[in-house]
Amino acid sequence: MERIIKNSNQFSDLSKNSLEILLPFFSRIDYKKGDELIRFGKPCQSLLLIDKGYCRAYNIQDGEEINFDFYFEYETVTNKNSYLFNKTSDFTVVACEPMIVYKINKTDLLYAIEQCPEIEIAGKKNLQAIAAKQEKQLQLFRILTAKGRYEFLEKNDPDLLQRVPISQLASYLGVKRETLSRIRNKRMKPAIM
Question: CDD domains from the entry (predicted)?
C-alpha cells in the first residue's frame, strides 16, 4: 500500500497523520482475470486504487461489448455517478489480467475526512483526475478520426496499445477490428522501410 500512495499523485501531499488515519480503511483485494470489480446495475460506493494489473469498463450495446475505458496501475476505478449520487452502475468493470487493488468504501472515506479534513483535498484531486481523463477521451472522440485517435494513443498512451488486445482496442476506438488492423499496418510500414 505504501508504494501506491507514493506513486499516486492525488495522495502524495498527505501528511503522515492523514496517512495514518486513511490507510487502515483500505483493504487489499486480489482479482483474477475476468473478475468483476464493478457490476452493471449494482451500486458502486467505493474507490479502487490499482496497484498491479489493469481492467476495462464496458457496456453491452446490441449484444456487443463496447469498451469505453481502461484503467492501469496507480489509477482510481469507480463509477463516478454511482459513487456521488447513490445510483446503480450503468457499466461493468472487469479485470483483464490478475490485479491487486486497494479498496476504500465511501462511508470510511467520509469518516477519515471528518478526522482529518486535508484528506478531502486529496479526494477532490482524485475525482478531478478521473474527470480530466474522461474529458480527454471525449475530445479524442469528438475531434479525431479513427487514425487520429490511434496516433494520439501512440504518442500519449502507448501502454494502452501494448497491453490491450486488438479486439478490445478496436471497440474502444469505435472501429471494426479489420479497420484497426489496417491502421496499424499502415503506421508500421514506414518504420520497416
Answer: CAP_ED (cd00038)
Q: Under DSSP, is residue 60 helix (H, G, I), strand (E, B) or coil?
A: strand
Q: Where are the domains of the chain?
A: 2-123, 144-193
- CA 29/CA 31 separation, integer angstroms: 6
Query: Which CATH superfamily groups domain 2-123?
Result: Jelly Rolls (2.60.120.10)
- Classify 53 in phi/psi space as left (phi over 0), alpha (psi -120 to 50) or beta: left
C-beta separation of 76 from 7 below 8 A: no
Instruction: Please tell me whether the overall predicted TM-score, pTM, comes out greater than 0.90 for this model.
Output: no
C-alpha cell at 84: 456521488
Question: Which pLDDT tens digits describe the chain residue by residue (193 residues)?
Answer: 666 666 565 666 788 888 889 889 999 999 999 999 999 999 999 999 999 999 999 999 999 999 989 999 988 999 989 998 999 999 999 999 999 999 999 999 999 999 998 888 888 888 788 888 888 888 777 888 888 989 988 888 888 899 999 999 999 998 999 999 999 888 776 554 4
Handedness of CA 57, 45, 125, 98 (dihedral sign): negative
- The three grid cell numbers given for residue 64, joined into one nine-digit string: 456487443
